[in-house]
Amino acid sequence: MLKIKNKIVGNDQPVFFIAEIGINHNGSIENAIELIKKCKSAGADAVKFQKRTVELVYSKEELEKPRESVFGNTNGDLKRGLEFDKNDYQKINQVCEELDIVWFASCWDQRSVDFMEDLNVPCYKIASASITDKDLLTYTEKTKKPIILSTGMSTEEEILKSANIFNKDNLIVLHCTSAYPCKIEELNLSYIYKLKKMFNCPIGYSGHEVGLSTTLAAVAMGAKVIERHVTLDRSLWGSDQSASIEPQGLEKLIRDIKTFELAYGNGEKIVYESEKPILEKLRKVNSI
């Protein structure tokens, strides 16, 4: 069990739901703020962004590659256009404080960790793409804040080595398949059971599939943290939009998770007061 700002995350706690805004704001702070409000209204516990220092994460050659977008004609134009500056994140922080919703980011480089530390985010997400970046993981661990480790594109050996960098009392491990969108037959939800045996910490699920039912199934299998990408409209341009949930779907998924949690019970057989009138009416005396 660990604490992320005012939220407790643990095996005996309700599901901690992270709405991954990521880069689905398409470089618009107005879109980001609208998404935050939609996520809060749907019942999400947190919203998450992605932070990159573009010149550190991508090579000069990669940034110069041709790529048409609303920001220009190169991949670098697109990557820079999707990044928010300090002023933007201060607006995000203010909105989240007013709405009482947690916000944080996955940082793709050490300078981005410093950037987020200046904003005093309550935790960090290690993206699946970064799970083998030992220098980044070690640097992020030095913040002493809770770490959410995503395991897409990774072998079991890589997962274990990465997790060993972190304080297990401050760690959450998410099962994940990093395809956008992910085929249902490649979700491999049963690996949640394996992770629960491997780690004495909360286990969760980061989903990129189309649809909601499989994410609810992950909760039924013991996932205590859920992360799904969210968007205002799946038809918007952007690499993550098609694997994202629109606001109405987000609201339904969170509602269904809370309904499941109410229905789950404590595992002990109980004769409820609501059953007793039926018992008296239908049960034969001394039948066994």
What does this structure look like?
The protein is α/β, with parallel strands linked by helices and 288 residues long. The protein has a single domain (2-282), classed as Aldolase class I (TIM Barrel). Helix content is 38%, strand content 19%. The chain contains twelve helices and twelve strands. An eight-stranded parallel beta barrel has the order 3-4-7-8-9-10-11-12, surrounded by six helices. It has a two-stranded antiparallel ribbon with strand order 1-2. Strand 7, helix 6 (110-118) and strand 8 (124-126) form a beta-alpha-beta unit. Helix 1 (29-42) runs parallel beside helix 5 (86-99) and helix 10 (213-220) runs parallel beside helix 11. The longest helix has 18 residues, at 247-264. The protein is globular, with a radius of gyration of 21 Å. The N and C termini lie far apart (45 Å).
Biggest beta-sheet profile: 8 strands, parallel, barrel
Give the strand content. 15-25%
Given the structure, what is the number of helices? Answer: 12
Shape: globular
Q: Which class do the helix and strand fractions yield?
A: alpha/beta
Report the helical percentage.
Answer: 25-40%
CATH class: Alpha Beta
Please give the CATH architecture: Alpha-Beta Barrel
Q: Estimate the mean pLDDT confidence.
A: 96
- The poorly predicted ranges are none
Head-to-tail CA distance between termini = 45 Å
Give the total of domains: 1
The strand count comes to 12
Spatial ordering of strands, largest sheet: 3-4-7-8-9-10-11-12
The ordered H/E elements are EEEHEHHEEHHEHEHEHEHEHEHH
Assign the CATH superfamily: Aldolase class I
Topology-level CATH name: TIM Barrel
Radius of gyration: 21 Å
